[in-house]
Write a structure and sequence with these properties.
Elements: H1 3-24, H2 27-31, E1 39-41, E2 46-48, H3 49-62
Antiparallel strand pairs: 1-2
């Protein structure tokens, strides 16, 4: 597989799986969605990706 095709596949995997990783509590994998300075924008959250992971984890642990 050439590098461009590989990169596209990796991006597709993230887009298709980020919510699964969050909902299943796969926190290490979920953290790979964002770069260190990545930003998450949703209707209920706007902020750094790592904070979105923290909030998601806290909510997950509450049940």
């Amino acid at each position: 597989m050439n590098p461009e095709t590989l990169h596209k596949q990796e991006i597709t995997d993230v887009v298709q799986n980020w919510a699964i990783w969050r909902d299943a509590g796969f926190w290490k994998k979920f953290l790979t969605v964002w770069h260190d300075d990545g930003w998450m924008s949703a209707t209920w959250f706007q902020g750094p990706g790592h904070k979105f992971v923290d909030i998601s984890r806290t909510s997950f642990e509450k049940g």
